[in-house]
Structures are given as C-alpha cells and as structure tokens.
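RECORD TYPE: protein structure
NAME: Low density lipoprotein-related protein 12
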Amino acid sequence: TEQQRCDGYWHCPNGRDEINCTMCQKEEFPCSRNGVCYPRSDRCNYQNHCPNGSDEKNCFFCQPGNFHCKNNRCVFESWVCDSQDDCGDGSDEENCPVIVPTRVITAAVIGSLICGLLLVIALG
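PREDICTED:
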C-alpha cells in the first residue's frame, strides 16, 4: 500500500517499496507518509511539520525547557501548575503546591465611648 512505501521496511520481497525514497541525514527524521526530512529539533516541538502530524506523535522525550506529560505530549515548563490542563490528561496540574491567599485585616475604632463606636474593617 502507499502507506507502507518508504517507511523503512521491506514489504515487497525484493524491497521495491523502499526504492527511490528520500533518505534522511543522521540529524534528521522522516515524515512517516511523505518521506520528507526535517531537523530533529522540529520533532515534538508543538508544531506539525508532517502532513499527518507524525512528528508530534509518540513523543517519548521532550526538548529542553519542556514538560513531558503522562500521555507523551510535551508542553512548555511555564505551563505547568498554571491551573490549565495543557497536557489534555491533567498531568501538568498534578502535585502542584496549594497557595492559600492571605488577607490583611485592618480595623480602626472611630469615635468615642460616649457617642458610640464605629468599627471599620478593611480587607486588603
């Protein structure tokens, strides 16, 4: 089949399905369908270079500065613990520190005991 052509495996006994295929350099990777070669740095970088997106599938590694999700997706490290599920499986939001907001309470007593009291509380 056309999908098996130039995929690096002999499906025909004489290997005809691998003849006249683009061979990538050591620092490149081929798209699984069209055989076009791209730099390895384009693999798992959140941008589809291959028509079928094969350069962004099965990312068992991530580029430096990225977080490896449990579903093998890569997201920017700055997206981890930002209260948004960027991985799609929630793994970038697991084990995040819980930050409890604190408020300063300021109270002032205005007036005197003779005229009554007015208590003003400001939250900030």
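COMMENT: The radius of gyration is 29 Å.
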